[in-house]
Amino acid sequence: MGSYKILLFLVLFPCSDLFLSVNSIEFEVGDDKGWEVPPSKNQQMYNEWASQNRFQVDDTVRFKYKKDSVMVVSESDYDKCHSTQPMFFSNNGDTTFTLNRSGLFYFISGVVGHCEKGQKMIIKVLQETANSPPPSVQNGTTNSSPTESGAAAMRTGVSASTLVLFIMSVIGFIFV
């Protein structure tokens, strides 16, 4: 009987990742428009897009573009569209950037004149919590891009009661 309990524990223990994992989401910047100079009538296009999404630590943002670049800069460089001292730079046409902390990230294009025409964006990454809420729902749809809408429903946190029940069930199998 003791070997049965050990075998059951060895089968259930790897499943604990199902309860404890938090999924990250990859967002495609600008959805189907990609990373480009916005039309003159909508210079806030990227900030509007960012404000419609909920970003969390370890999510990624993917920039797809042609003959351009992506930079992460300071707030003051963002405001002035200065690209001389980026904290991050990429110009490979398909850039993925991991949001590795909570707070604000400032993105600009490094091509001369593009930032001034509105090719810039601020992303706010939410504080890490043990049980983050799902994306907000308005009018029956989630505020999410097509690339992350299905994944957003899978983003989960672990409630204390779920964790306690899991631990108690494992202990119960070992000692009963």
From TrEMBL:
Coiled coil: none annotated. Keywords: Disulfide bond, Glycoprotein, GPI-anchor, Lipoprotein, Membrane, Signal, Transmembrane, Transmembrane helix. It is a lipid-anchor; GPI-anchor. It holds the Pfam family Cu_bind_like. GO terms for cellular component: endomembrane system; side of membrane. It comes from the Eukaryota. Residues 137-148 have a biased composition (Polar residues). Residues 1-24 form the signal peptide. Residues 25-127 form the Phytocyanin domain. It is found in: Endomembrane system; Membrane. Residues 131-150 are annotated as: Disordered. Belongs to the early nodulin-like (ENODL) family. This is Phytocyanin domain-containing protein.
